[in-house]
Amino acid sequence: MSTEATYLKLSQQIMEQYQDLPSHLPLPSEHDLGNRFGVNRQTIRAALDELERRWLIRRVKGSGSFRTRRYEYRIGPELAPSFTKTVRSAGGEPRTENAKPFTRPANATEREILALPANAQVAVLNRVRFIDGAAVSTATSVLPAARVPKLASVLEADESLDAVLRRHYNYQPVRQWSQSRLSSPPEEICAVLKLRGRPPQILLRGLVSCAGSGARLEYVESYLKPDVFDVVTEVGKW
């Protein structure tokens, strides 16, 4: 049997053997897998590489290889533009860590997207999102400072921005537009998500507006791990 056929067959056998392993527990080591399946470490590593390419496992430096559980991340005109609500509806339990929001002058791109005047200030919020204790997404939100006064004092460290916009500022956030593509993140994002190298992640960009007034509230750029999320965009009904 060829080496290629061996590692491909082995990758399937590994997934079948450990399909019921909880996603927070690591697979056996390469050495132990080699002994279990009677193959050398090089073949085991090739099989694990194949599973990682297919986003069926994730490897965490110093911790091991883990079976992935992927969550549907649904985007549509009728769906709330909230990471927390989206993940919970898919069966996950998210947690968010908010950095302290800060204010600065808007740049040209932000002024265009948010329809701001030349001297406008924006509030910038950086976040890291977690599922089962693992960092799975980052987000940078840029909001017109005049529309979210004192954001730094009203947003808790683990609070949903969508919830604050609704409860504290009485907005009705809706997606005005959204765009997703694969993109290699900068090094600081790779460090937060514990990525090996700079593999492409799902870059999700979007504009959130108020349903009632049409005011542009938030421009957001998020990176989501493709071994965790399956982005589903819904346009129209069927």
Question: Can you tell me the number of structural domains?
Answer: 2
Question: Order of helices and strands, N to C?
Answer: HHHEEEHEEHEEHHEHEEE
Helix content: 25-40%
Number of strands: 11
How far from one another are the termini? 47 Å
Radius of gyration, in angstroms, nearest whole number:
21 Å
Q: Largest sheet at a glance?
A: 7 strands, antiparallel
Average pLDDT taken over every residue: 90
Return the CATH class of the largest domain. Answer: Alpha Beta
Question: Structural class, from helix and strand content?
Answer: alpha+beta
Globally, the shape reads elongated
CATH fold-level topology of the largest domain: Chorismate lyase
> Can you tell me the CATH architecture of the largest domain?
3-Layer(aba) Sandwich
Number of helices: 8
**Unreliably modeled segments:** none
